[in-house]
Specification:
Order of helices and strands: HEEEEEEEEEEEEEEEEHEEEEEEE
Structural class: mainly beta
Shape: elongated
Distance between the termini: 70 Å
Strand content: 35-45%
Oligomer: single chain
Largest sheet: 9 strands, mixed
Helix content: under 10%
Length: about 325
């Protein structure tokens, strides 16, 4: 009883400290965040139970009066930051928590963290190069599709992918003089041929008008966008004709970035929340509920958008022991 009473007093002290702005200071940098949290002396022995998302305190500085400064210095692609693009801004959200007991016990204290950064209109990834040989034209639009390296810093230098490793697939459409465009992956399958042939085996990756099926059975997800006109799906290489040439066939669709419905969406399944989530606006994830059944267009008069069929390959998925013995070639996209 005495122990529980002491814990309650400590939590009250923590809430009182956090309610005054100077005790939690947040500095948002470009791609990083620095947080300083002044914690009372009674809670200093429990510093390992303070978290930013899933990250622990990165530095603890003792003060003369017995209090301490708990510091969290992390990039925003760590600690399970939730990222959302909204107009001209990128929003990064997380929570500071105090967990006196391990999961699945809920935290006894939660403090929201939010960083907002203006996104430059002229910024594009360094690998967006129309002369790189991974583009195809459709009318006045130029579509790109490529396999990226694992850290997303550029186009992959090899088409040989060890089984179980990540294989990010990126697609984009050049804006040019058009109004802002939203690029979606309506359907993607893996096949053993550059042309889809009826009766030949295929491995479905995305189906049902933008539902990432591979996120249900594997570790796949859509990555946060840098612009509405580009999309990246993070796949984990799968067992499909291992050691042979494989091609990724995708139906891309260009759409209005302000309009989402059951047939115009990018949804992946979150194993953590046990539900489908909408990439571009998680608060509207109810649009993705049809991924477990059938996603159909309710109104026949609705515009269909501009579609483009892209093919990426050949890719060769190999057992890790064989990856060094397979000759590599550049994976390219054709339309």
């Amino acid at each position: 009883m005495l122990c529980c009473l002491c814990l309650s007093v400590l939590l009250l002290a923590l809430r009182a400290a956090a309610s005054t702005q100077p005790d939690i200071q947040v500095v948002c940098g470009e791609g990083s965040v620095s947080i300083t949290w002044r914690i009372p002396s009674d809670l200093v022995p429990h510093a390992t139970r303070f978290f930013l998302g899933n990250c622990q305190v990165s530095q603890l500085d003792a003060l003369p009066n017995g209090d301490a400064l708990a510091k969290f210095n992390y990039p925003t692609n760590d600690c399970k930051f939730k990222k959302q693009m909204k107009g001209k801004f990128m929003i990064f959200k997380n929570e500071l928590t105090y967990r006196p007991r391990p999961k699945p016990e809920a935290p006894t204290f939660v403090y929201p963290i939010e960083c907002v950064q203006k996104r430059s209109h002229t910024w594009v990834p360094p690998f967006l190069n129309p002369g790189s040989g991974v583009s195809a034209s459709r009318g006045n639009l130029v579509f790109h599709m490529a396999l990226l390296n694992e850290d997303l810093s550029g186009i992959a230098k090899t088409n040989v992918i060890p089984l179980g490793s990540f294989m990010p697939i990126w697609a984009a459409v050049d804006q040019k003089s058009h109004q802002p465009l939203l690029l979606l992956m309506e359907e993607c399958v893996a096949a053993t041929t550059h042309e889809l042939v009826p009766g030949n085996p295929v491995y479905p990756i995305i189906n049902n008008k933008g539902c990432l099926l591979e996120s249900v059975r594997g570790n796949a997800k859509f990555l946060p966008r840098y612009h509405s006109s580009a999309i990246t799906v993070q796949l984990q290489s799968f067992k499909f004709h291992v050691g042979e040439e494989v091609y990724i066939h995708c139906k891309l669709i260009v759409w209005d970035p302000e309009v989402f419905d059951e047939t115009k969406k990018a949804c992946h399944y979150s194993k953590e929340s046990e539900r489908w989530e909408l990439l571009d606006d998680p608060l509207r994830s109810n649009i993705c509920s049809c991924c477990d059944s059938s996603c159909s267009q309710r109104f026949k008069r609705a515009a269909s958008g501009l579609r483009h069929n892209s093919v990426l390959g050949p890719l060769i998925i190999v057992d890790r022991s064989d990856s060094s013995s397979v000759q590599t070639v550049a994976a390219s996209e054709g339309g």
